[in-house]
Amino acid sequence: WKPSPRRRILMDFLWVLSLLGTTFLTGILLLATWAIYYHISHTEIPPSISQPFQLRCLHCLLIMGFGLAYILKKTRLFTDHNFLRFLMDGIPPRKDPQLSIQNLCFDGIPVRMYQPKGSCEGGWRGILYFHGGIGLYGSVDAYERLCRAIAKESNSLVVSVGYRLA
Q: Are 164 and 118 contacting, i.e. CB atoms less than 8 angstroms apart?
């Protein structure tokens, strides 16, 4: 029995695809192992932290993100800044029925305004939010969930300012 040329091409493609998938999963496993080892050997969690397991998991994910960014930078697939910006922006949140969200622009500077729905006697308190990221990371999108939580919890109008990154 000899496979047809079309079937042979399909079998070769599937073989290459499985090889790439195995290599990718092995790389992720090695990266996760390294992140956990690095975390355990270099990090002490103060006893006053109320959720140490969640903090440890988040720290390991951050180590993996920075490690993956370094690998992608060395292979010239991504610059580390662009990859980390992509990770920080994350999955966009769903529409929130408790907030009115508007994208505005003042003198060419983009801002996003979060206002709780409903009326406020005496006017709204205002919070002006400038995201962190040392001028390299972060965006209005990256801090979307935080600004929504601030607006809802404090019953305040939050204006998140976007600015040019380095």
A: no
